[in-house]
Design a protein that fits this description.
By secondary structure, the chain is mainly alpha-helical. It is built from 20 helices and 4 strands. It starts with a helix and ends with a helix.
Length: 450
């Protein structure tokens, strides 16, 4: 391990790396429960999604360890899974097969872009305002979804949405769990999101035992007590290779092709934003950036992300990306790929714990959704919002995602509004040809599908 991971060179040792890997896993293991609930809403088999989530996390994280020797871990990304389920499948009407095909194409494109200079050009072509707006908009969208899953936000005929009854067990427990989660985050407790989920789930079990929480499968209220703690992993066959079936649906119509292109582009953009931003943030915390602010082996890190996404699509899960929670392991002293290998091993072991993760209810995982959503809003504080040329596209992008229940629509309107604002200000030369091209694709998608 010393020879391969160069532990001494990075000022670390096996014990430190193992502790760091365990810490990282503890902070991001919540995705095993959250992803099952979200992709299950899209009609995918929950048992297969659980296995696909764990295996995709293992593959992406091992690639990060072996290719880049960095202490960063990967898993299906928050926000991207919500986009997959609630926008692409439930709102736009894509079949799960076609949605997975879009992720497969996005992953393959990411591999190509990671081996060329196009990725950098694509990333640099998008203005900083829109980069921050996308993250904040996805944050609001995730908050909205989390509150819906918990029954805190419900449909209402007069006002479209309203607050649900907090006398009911699920909404009440979700709000209690959310308070607990925020307290843990403020106290900087490692694994705050996972702990919040577990506490909310345990409270739900207590509520079931005293009769407050009533099992009603037809209403989505399932038994909260697992039948066992350990079992053979569920079959992955229901989702394995679904993406290849979806590839045959791409060219069924012109509007279908443009919709597929727009969805794939959105997956790609958000993945690039998320990955590059996370790598920069965690690397900065670990003091791994050089004097020019660059991360050595960043190309290998991006390649690991792309491989994880491609493998995840084949297995049957949403886009895989580098997790900001890797910073927890870095804080514990993790500096090499050995940290990532430990995290990957724990994701693999978690396959035996499916009875636990598959029993955790939506109102418990909603606490993580809302908390992550709130944290995603933070970057817009770096912008100077007194400039209308920035404020207008920023505001439109952020509010459109939850309002239209679509990350893709929010991104489309954000790009279009940015072009209009800059053109109105007579600043055509500030708009790159790539921005014009991407905006044209988004505009075609909006016209053909709305």
């Amino acid at each position: 391990m010393e020879k391969f991971f160069k532990l001494n060179q990075h000022g670390t040792n096996v014990k430190t790396e193992v502790i760091a890997g365990i810490t990282t896993f503890a902070t991001m293991a919540y995705i095993l429960a959250v992803n099952v609930n979200i992709l299950g809403d899209a009609g995918l088999d929950t048992g297969a999604v659980f296995v696909a989530t764990a295996l995709a996390s293992v593959i992406g994280t091992v690639c990060m360890a072996l290719l880049a020797n960095l202490p960063f871990s990967l898993a299906p990304g928050m926000g991207l899974n919500a986009f997959f389920a609630y926008t692409v499948v439930l709102s736009m009407g894509f079949s799960p097969h076609l949605a997975l095909a879009a992720i497969l194409v996005e992953g393959l494109l990411f591999i190509v872009l990671s081996k060329s200079g196009i990725r950098t050009a694509l990333f640099n072509a998008i203005p900083l305002t829109l980069k921050y707006a996308v993250g904040a908009g996805i944050g609001l969208f995730i908050i909205f979804i989390g509150l819906q899953n918990a029954g805190v936000v419900v449909a209402d005929g007069a006002t479209l949405v309203t607050m649900g009854s907090i006398k009911s067990a699920a909404p009440a427990l979700a709000l209690i769990g959310l308070v607990v989660t925020f307290v843990l985050l403020i106290k900087k407790i490692k694994g705050a999101l996972l702990i919040g989920i577990v506490i909310t789930w345990v409270l739900g079990i207590a509520a079931q035992l005293i009769g407050w929480y009533v099992i009603a499968p037809e209403a989505g209220a399932y038994d909260l007590i697992p039948g066992s703690l350990v079992s053979v992993p569920p079959s992955i066959m229901p989702t394995l290779g679904m993406c290849f079936d979806g590839l045959r649906e791409i060219f069924t119509s012109v509007d279908g092709f443009f919709s597929f292109a727009a969805v794939t582009l959105t997956f790609l953009f958000v993945d690039i934003f998320d990955t590059v931003g996370t790598l920069a943030g965690v690397a900065s915390k670990a003091k791994m950036l050089n004097e020019r602010g660059e991360l050595e082996k960043s190309d290998q890190a991006l390649m690991a992300d792309a491989i994880g996404t491609t493998a995840g699509a084949i297995l049957g899960t949403s886009t895989v990306t580098t997790y900001i929670e890797s910073a927890a392991g870095v804080q514990e002293g993790g500096r090499t790929g050995l940290t990532s290998m430990v995290t990957a091993c724990l994701f693999f072991v978690s396959l035996l714990l499916s009875p636990i993760f598959l029993t955790i209810p939506g109102f418990a995982t909603a606490t993580a959704l809302v908390a992550v959503g709130v944290l995603m809003i933070e970057p817009i504080g770096k912008l100077k919002l007194e400039n209308l040329e920035d404020l207008i596209p920023l505001g439109i992008t952020i509010i459109s995602m939850p309002l239209f229940y679509s990350i893709s629509t929010g991104l489309s309107l954000g790009f279009i509004s940015y072009i209009i604002v800059k053109a109105a200000a007579g600043k055509y030369k500030e708009i790159s040809w790539l921005m014009w091209l991407m905006t044209a694709i988004f505009l075609a998608q909006l016209i053909l599908n709305h």
